[in-house]
Amino acid sequence: MHDDQSLSNALQQTLRKSGIDAIGHAGWETHFCHFYETRQDLIDMLVPYFEAGLRDNESCLWVASGPIGVEEAETALVEALPDFKDYLTRGQITFKPASDWYYPSGTFRADHVLAEWVRHERESRAHGFEGLRVTGDTFWLERTRWHKFADYEAHLNRTLGQYRIICVCSYCMDRCTASDVLYATRISSHLHGERASGSSCKARVDARTRDLEVLLKERDEFLSMLSHELRNPLAPIESAIEVIRRSVPEQSPAAAASNIVKRQVRNLLVILNDLLEADRTVRGMFSIDPVPVELSAIIDEAVDAMRPAAAQNGQTVTIDGLDRSATIAGDHVRLNQVFVNLLNNATTYAPPHGHTDVSMVVGDGEVRVCLSDDGPGVAEPLRDRVFSLFVQGPRELDRSQGGCGIGLAVSRQIVERHGGSLTLERARSGRWSRFVVTLPCTPHPVPAQPAADHKLARPTTLSRRILIVDDEPDIVSALLTLFQMEGHEVRTAFDGETALEIAKTFAPQVVFADIGMPRMDGYELARRLRALPANAKATIVAVTGYGTESDRERSEQAGFDLHLVKPVTPPALLEVVSAAGDELANKS
Asked: How many Cβ atoms are within 10 Å of 321's Cβ, its own excluded?
C-alpha cells in the first residue's frame, strides 16, 4: 500500500490538468498542437488551458499574436477568472507580443527563443511554481521562415524533455497549407481535435494532404491567371488616357474626362490588388525589404496620393507634428500601402466636407502615428472583427462607400511584420475613428541619395530605340503612340519570334515585353535576347499581369532587368527609359 501511495503521489506531481476536455491530464514535456479558425476558437481553447495551470500553481506565459493581442488575451482571462488579478499580482502569468518574443531584434533566432523558454522555466521554479505552461501562435510566421521554424520546433521537443514545461502551439487554419497540417501532426505530442490511432489515421491524413496540395496548386495557378487577365485591359486604358491628356488643352472637357477615367482606373487597381493579394498577405506569404527610411516621407507620399479623392467630396486632410528625424527599418512600398489604405478608409467613410488628421508622436524607442476622422466610427459589434478579412460596416444598397473589407486586414499584417502594431482606439464620445500605427524606431540614419538618382525623375530628352512586345494590340498601340510623342524610335512585335528578328537589326536600347504570350513566352524571349551580341547592354523590362514573388524571381533568372506589373503608369514607363539612358551612358 505504501508503494502504491508513493506511485500515486508521483503521478499526481507529474500529470497536470490540461484544461482541454479531449485530453484530460498530461505530463510535463507535452507539446500540444491546436488548429483554430476564429478568434473565439482560440479563446475557448486557451482560457481553460491557462485556468488549469493557474489553479495548479504553474507559472504561465501567453505569447500573443494574430487575432488575439496582449490586451485581448488578458481581458479574456479577466472575464473567465474572478480572481485573475491575484494571479497577475503575484507574477504567476505573463503576456508577451510575438514580436518581442520570437524576433525582438527583427530576426527570428531559434537558439535565443529556446534559451528564453528555459530561463522562464528555471525562474518559475525558483519562485515556488511547479513549472511553466506556455502557448505560442504561428500567426506571425511568414512562409519564407517556415523551414527555419520547423527546425526550431524539433529542437523544442528535445528541450521539453529536460524541463517542466507544457506547451501549446496554435495554428490558424486560414494560414496553413496542407503540408503544414501534416507537419504539425508529426511534431506534436498531442493533436487537439479528432484523435485516432494506427496506420489508417495516417493514411487518411496523407491522402487528404495530397488532395489539398493539388487544390492549393490549382488555386494558385488560377489566381495567377486571374491577375494577368484582369490587369491586362487596364494597361492600354492607362496609356491611352495619358496620350489623350498630352494631346488636348489642360482645361478642355477632354482633359477633364481623361482625369476621371484615370482616377477610376487607379481605384479599380487598388481593389484588384487587394483581392489578389489578400490571401497571400494575411497568411504572411509576402516579402519585405526593410531599410532605414524616414517615416514622415512615406506619410507625405500617402497623403499626397489621397488628397485628390478627398477634395472631390470637399474633405480636408491635415498633417500635424511629423518628426522629420524619425527613422524606422521599413519597406517603403509596403508601409505606403498601409497609410494609403488607412487614409482611403478615412476619406471613404468621412462625411462631405469632413476632416482627417494625421499626427505623429516619437518616444521610448517607437513612433506612433494616429489617423483620426470625423466619420461615423466603427459600430461596437464590429470592433473586435474590424481587422478580419471581408468585414465591413452596414452596406447600403447604393454601395456608395465601396470597398471589399480587405485593406485593414492586409495593413495590420504588414505593420506586424515590421515589429509594430495597428490598433483601433475607442471613441470617448461622438462619432469618429482613430487608427494608431506603432513602429519601432531605428538609430540608423537614412543614407543620402547619390546625385545621379535625381536624373531618374526627369524624362530623357534624347531619342532611344525602344522595342515593344505584347500579344495585345491595344497595349502595343497605346505604348507606341506614347513613346513616339516623346520623340523615341519605336518598333513593335506581337510575338517573341518576330521580336527576335527585329532585335537583330534594330538593336533596341530598351525592350518592354509581356510574359504571357503564345508560342514563345517572355521568359524565353528574354533569354534569347540576352544571347544576341547587339542586346548585351539593352535594358529588358517585363511588363506583365503576373505579379507574384515567384513570377519576379523567374523574370530575374531569365534576364529581365525590371519586372513591372500592369497597369504601369506612363510616367513610370518614361522614367524607366530615362534611367536606361543613363545606364547605357555609364556602360559605354
From this structure: 11
Calculate the CA dihedral of residues 101, 287, 559, 225 and round it to 10 degrees: 140
Q: Please give the order of strands across the beta sheet that includes 31-36.
A: 93-97, 59-64, 132-137, 165-172, 31-36, 190-192
Quote the CATH superfamily of domain 287-440. Histidine kinase-like ATPase, C-terminal domain (3.30.565.10)
CATH of 13-195, one of 3.40.50.300, 3.30.930.10, 3.40.1400.10, 2.60.40.10: 3.40.50.300
Tens digits of per-residue pLDDT, 118-133? 889 999 999 999 999 9
For the segment 159-178, the average pLDDT, to the nearest whole number, is: 76
Statement: residue 513 has pLDDT above 90: yes
Hey, is 48 helix, strand or coil? helix
Q: How many C-beta neighbours within 10 Å does residue 181 have?
A: 18
Task: Say how many Å lie between the first and final Cα of the chain, rounded.
Answer: 95
pTM, two decimal places = 0.46
> Quick check: 156 and 31 in contact, CB under 8 A?
yes
Same topology between domain 13-195 and domain 451-587: yes
DSSP H/E element including 136? strand 132-137
3-class SS of residue 361: strand
Query: What CATH code would you report for 451-587?
Result: 3.40.50.2300
Q: Is 303 exposed, middle or buried (0-12, 13-18, 19+ CB in 10 A)?
A: buried
397, 345 Cβ separation under 8 angstroms:
no
- Report which of 422, 398, 286 is spatially closest to residue 341, judged by C-alpha positions: 422
What residues does each domain of the chain span?
13-195, 287-440, 451-587
The pLDDT score that the predictor gives to residue 402 is 46
pLDDT (tens digit per residue) in 19-32? 888 788 888 878 88
DSSP-derived secondary structure letter, 376:
-
